[in-house]
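We include the pair:
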Amino acid sequence: STMEETDREAVATAVQRVAGMLQRPDQLDKVEQYRRREARKKASVEARLKVQRLSQLDGVRTGLSQLHNALNDVKDIQQSLVDVNKDWRQSINTIENLKDVKDAVVQHSQLAAAVENLKNIFSVPEIVRETHDLIERGELLQAHRKLMDLECSRDNLMYEQYRMDSKNTHDMNLIHTYFGDMQKLSEELAKQLWMVVQRSLVTVRRDPTLLVSVVRIIEREEKIDRRMLDRKKQTGFIPPGRPKKWKEKMFNILERTVSTRIEGTQADTRESDKMWLVRHLEIIRKYVLDDLLVAKTLLDQCFPPHYDIFNRLLNMYHQALATRMQELAAEDLEANEIVSLLTWVLNTYNSAEMMGNSELSPEVDVNSLDPLISQSVVDQLLSKYMSTLTSNIIGWLRKALETDKKDWIKETEPEADQDGYYQTTLPAIVFQMFEQNLQVAAQINEDLKTKVLLLCLQQMNSFLTRYKDEAQLYKEDHLKNRQYPQCYVQYMIAVINNCQTFKESIISLKRKYLNIEMEDTLSVSHANMDAILDIIAKEGCSSLLDEVFMDLEPHLNELMTKKWLMGSNAVGTICVTVEDYFNDFAKIKKPYKKTMTLEAHRRVVVEYIRAIMLKRISFKNAEERKEGAERMIKEAEQFRFLFKKLAAGSGEDTEGLCDIIEAIAEVIKLTDPSLLYLEVSTLVSKYPDIRDDHIAALLTVRGDASRDMKQTIIETLDKGPSQPNPNYVPIFKEITVPTLTVPKLLK
């Protein structure tokens, strides 16, 4: 059926092809041509099929012959297997009999190993002795070579024993005991190595080869450790005392050495030396820098690169320093010690004097070093510093003032500065103390400097209030007994001058230590201090003038009396006394001295006018009035001359004060009573603060005006326009007139 199907398909295909060839009428002419072409094609296909069939037949033939051969081979093998099987069954008994031979072979190999090791085993005590001697002589490399041989013998024996019978601890212990001295040798050698490592920074300068030998020994041991650990992974066996981990031990010893080196630099305690901490920190700085320079230039070459010895050491030093600084920070430090510590930790450590040293770079990068103490510890120290400093400053200021007060009662004059102005050492002492603390704070950082400045000025404020109180007490004590203290005037002058010095010092301190942006925060307290200083100076000046006028009192009391009229020298004495005092007052600094001269001038005139208003004299006639008035004018001239001399160079116009005395004298001198009213009204227009009682007193002194006349003049006085001098400072308002006339009482 398959053939039929194929035929049908062939026919269908042929029909299709013929249909395809004969589609147009003109193609019928070529039918013959087509038939010939197809016949050729068919013949060619048949030929190819024939060839194909022949080659397939050849293949089948070859395959059949190979199968035939294979069959024969299988039969041969089958026969051989039967033979082998027969032989094997026969030889089982023979194999059983060979077990003895096998045991003999194992024993032989063990004996061979034992014989090989015997040489070593018997010479163990001798080698141990030799090795010990080598260690004693410091020939460490040879000693280690022998030690390695001994360990190798022992380890091989133990390994053989372990392979043979790992459960047999008795034999293992036997070997271990026999080689017992060798363990001691290893420890002895290690001790020598660690001594060299401990002194490595010294050794590397004196005998670098010794250090190199030590490093080579450690490297050999590391290699053996690695080999033994590998064998343990494979066999489970590891000799006693392995791994030795000598490299790790070496680093531990270096670490301990570094710690001890840093701790050991503290030679003194606070009890034995105030500067113990500064000294301690300076020694640390020097040692660490020296050590690291040696480590970088020499030590680095004695170790293999993978030890990274310089960085490891740098790390150890940094850690040890951090530990030491934290210990120091935890101690009960004084203020100056806190500053020393913080300056060292925050500045010195990273500076060119230490870790920032150019010879240490680029290996040491100060920017990547961790801080030695944490910010919180720094803050704690700073706040402790500020509170200690606060109480110290309060104490120092109190002590400075106490010392200054002791000077005030001395019997010798105070010192003068280069310009001859009296002063005491108080401002210098106070500001020197402030300066020192500010310089110290500036070493740490800007922020602390500003805080300390604010603290100083704040304490200065309360100090000045105390200074003011003390000056007041000084004055009060003096008034109880004016003979004491002997140099009261000179010391009061020094107090006044100190106020000026304080002002200048505050300004210079701010200029030097205060950032511009902080200026505003201080302006209020600065103004406050200036105000207190002005009050102290002003009160001082006024107490000195009181002193002058207490001495002038008996002479002022003589003015406008009968005695005065008869020709007393009261005013001459007053002028001499004032001038004498002003010789001392020349030692007062400019701004205060100027005020003082003005005030003295004014007070003298006020006292003189007060003497007139006291109505101690009433002139009897025109002659007396003329004499009295001329005397007043002459005395006004004396005062004018005196104060001109005292105010020399200050350019002050004080003429006007003595003019008042002259104007009053004119009223007294007047000979024509009818012009009296006019003269008085001129006086009132010039000095509008004159009161009625002043005019009444003045007329009483004149002595020729009746009660009615006084009444009329006072009532008709024109209270109208006055033309006082624009510079006139009212003077009459502070002069009181006694209600009862003194002469009447005296009669």
